[in-house]
Amino acid sequence: MLISRNPLGLLLRNLKQRAILDEEDQQAVLGLPVVVKTLSANGYVIREGDDVDCCEVLVSGFAFRQLLTGDGKRQILAIHIPGDALDFQNLFLDVADHSVQMLTAGEVAFVPRAAVQKLFHERSRFAQAVFINVLVDAAIFRESVLNLGQRDARSRMAHIICEFMLRCEMMRFNGPDNRNLPMTQEQLADATGLSAVHANRVLRDLAAENLIQPHRGHISIPDWRKLRAIADFNDRYLHLSQQIMSNDL
Amino acid sequence: MLISRNPLGLLLRNLKQRAILDEEDQQAVLGLPVVVKTLSANGYVIREGDDVDCCEVLVSGFAFRQLLTGDGKRQILAIHIPGDALDFQNLFLDVADHSVQMLTAGEVAFVPRAAVQKLFHERSRFAQAVFINVLVDAAIFRESVLNLGQRDARSRMAHIICEFMLRCEMMRFNGPDNRNLPMTQEQLADATGLSAVHANRVLRDLAAENLIQPHRGHISIPDWRKLRAIADFNDRYLHLSQQIMSNDL
DNA sequence: CGTTTAATTGAACACAATCAAGCCCTGTGG
DNA sequence: CCACAGGGCTTGATTGTGTTCAATTAAACG
Questions:
Q1: Interface contact B163, partner A, CB < 8 A
Q2: Which tens digits make up the pLDDT trace of B132-144?
Q3: How far apart are CA A148 and CA B141, in angstroms?
Q4: Does residue B152 reach within 7 angstroms of strand C, measured from its CB?
Q5: Contacts of A6 (CB under 8 A, 6+ apart)
Q6: Which of A204, B50, B136, B147 is most buried, taking the most CB atoms under 10 A from its CB?
Q7: pLDDT digits (tens, 9 = 90+) for B96-143
Q8: HSE-CB of A217 using CA atoms within 13 angstroms
Q9: Over the stretch A79-108, which tens digit does the pLDDT of each residue have?
Q10: CB contact (8 A) between residue A237 and residue B97
């Protein structure tokens, strides 16, 4: 079974980045029962309040997590790229406490939650890999708390863009299509806790300094490293140093 | 071995709230090797950048997580109460990406990380319990992102206070001493992303409406339920409905 | 082409930050 | 017992970052 053909191949690559899985573990992951569905932009993967019975993995396209206030204001919590598990957060929680939606059209692999739970209990290395995955997600949430609580609009915006670019690089998405952050200004505003108007002005200023190139509906970054100083971006929270070198794609 | 006498007794109660552990699992938790140390207020439990070799559990007193920006601004990420694991976040991550400090003087149980890892691999129900614990922590971080990104100063402050009160209630800390949030205004400011001056004004207003009672160095809440509407507090993210009823303290 | 969604801009306003000063406890040492 | 030092709290005045409201332009799509 070729990893590159299997819808869970990218997830496996993702898990192997920070955990050791032997051949049997890997086959078990790739052998999980799965239904792949194509969702359109804005399609819901997980809805807050829903009972959880599937464990979704993003195969292609981009997605985001969101949470709403009582009066309907939206906070975008995280952006997800292909190979990300969208629902390890709910693996043992029975009611979804937030929603996941598609940012662009793309494919999502739906795995029965019970099958993943079974693997978790039977293969402790798999359990560890999933655990690490969730820990890094938690670290990303913590960095978001810092970002929203302590940085100004300009740094916040730069930080979110830096994080996206670096995570794409980690997963070796280096093609020209993958260096684009496919978010509208309104979505970026909801991710940074800014108004759409102010987000527009911040982006305008960053563009004027040639730090980003905004296009309609997405943003490309000529060289994201230039943004790091502005973003106060320290990649410790992504735990890259723990990455395990591997040769297979 | 009496739970109430064991330094890890409260942790066990915590884990049992949302996961099933049989008698053997429970004995394994209580049998973990442990060194209890008393730390003074502001003492460090975990320091960002440190290599992780212990897994700490809060036995008594209160603690908080924090993360600093490059120019030294502090964001308080979460408050911890007795029975909370302070370091499951680092169970399989080798370098701490944030710090944990004591809010008040208190006792911390230091467990060798390898012993907890061993239990994780040998007892999958324990692994699940720890996993759920980390998932709920992640849910709390997500709610903080929403809180900082979308709510105004007044709601933010009320929300943090509500969360603390409800979590104390969940762990059955209902005595008069435990309904006090032992934070200075400066700490509350760093938790809410406000300046100390503005935090002071917000607290002043809440106190004027008899929603809170600030004292020197801590805050008591006559009836935290009154704060819920102001806080836009929805407890779904704490996953209380998943709580397992149990009779033993 | 007309409709829609996204981006843009200006003007007025508001919430919260900053600066600066003073107060009120509590603990300490003369 | 009093003076003083320090931390935490309080308050006013000023500044500024970001919001809101409102209107306009630009690009995509049927």
A1: no
A2: 999 999 999 999 9
A3: 12
A4: yes
A5: A12, A30
A6: B147
A7: 999 999 999 999 999 999 999 999 999 999 999 999 999 999 999 999
A8: 3
A9: 999 999 999 999 999 999 999 999 999 999
A10: yes
